[in-house]
Amino acid sequence: MLKPLAEYEDLARIAHGHLCAGQILGLRMALHGVHLLELDDPAGKDRKRLVTYVEIDRCMTDAIGVVTGCRLGKRALKFRDFGKAAATFCDLDRGRAVRIAARETSKQRAAEMYPEIEDKNQQQMRAYRELPDEELFEVAWVRVAPPAEDLPGYKAPRVVCAECGEGISFRREVERDGRTLCRACAGERYYTPL
Ligand SMILES: [Zn+2]
Ligand SMILES: [Zn+2]
């Protein structure tokens, strides 16, 4: 059910608007992840069992979504803003997870492989298609235990913030001095009302 890399490249180009080295690295990373988890149809029959945590919001993040089918709106893509070229692929059915990080040396390896290609993006694209997984990635089996409210399909009544009156899903409310508040009203607001 998994497609050849070239087909994923076409899908990634459409989804992301261009193809670049970061996309290829993301495609390779996700393919390696689902392979290690022994899922052969992540975007199809296995779609309900796979959750992916991404640690950066860059080109590779979209590519990971292309292979895994994990999307923010399906609650199957989790963003942890660590600024790292890494992702953790979790098989909910078997309760196991593998974290894959791009090696810091991958750019250097690309330069060694194709010194004659001057354009760095082209150089890395070519190398990232060809380098073996072991040279591109560091792999670690890890435990991830997402709470039920983080998982796709979680259902619970919405509650209403006692301060702003907006509805809150997925148990994201907080208790402050006996009041139920949304995270914004509890002090995590990322915007300033004008
Ligand atoms: Zn890109
Ligand atoms: Zn509120």
Description:
The protein is an alpha+beta fold and 194 residues long. The protein is 34% helix and 19% strand. The chain contains seven helices and nine strands. The strands form three sheets. A five-stranded mixed beta sheet has the order 2-1-3-4-5. Helix 1 packs across helix 2, helix 1 packs across helix 3 and helix 2 runs parallel beside helix 5. The termini are far apart. The model has no long low-confidence stretch (mean pLDDT 96). One zinc ion binds next to helix 7. One zinc ion (ZN) binds next to helix 7.
What are the salient characteristics of this protein?
single chain, 194 residues, alpha+beta, 5-stranded mixed beta sheet, two-stranded antiparallel ribbon, 7 helices, 9 strands, elongated, binds zinc ion
Quick rundown:
This protein is of the alpha+beta class and 194 residues long. It has seven helices and nine strands; from the N terminus they run ααβαβββαααβββββα. It has a five-stranded mixed beta sheet with strand order 2-1-3-4-5. It has a two-stranded antiparallel ribbon with strand order 6-7. A two-stranded antiparallel ribbon has the order 8-9.
Regions with pLDDT < 50 over 5+ consecutive residues? none
Strand portion, in percent?
15-25%
Bound molecules: zinc ion
Distance between the termini: 51 Å
Mean pLDDT: 96
Q: Helix fraction?
A: 25-40%
Please work out how many helical segments DSSP would assign.
7
As laid out across the biggest beta sheet, the strand order is 2-1-3-4-5
Please state the CA-atom Rg, rounded to the nearest Å: 20 Å
- Going by helix content, strand content and strand pairing, the class is alpha+beta
- The string of secondary-structure elements, in order, is HHEHEEEHHHEEEEEH
E-strand count: 9
State the major sheet.
5 strands, mixed
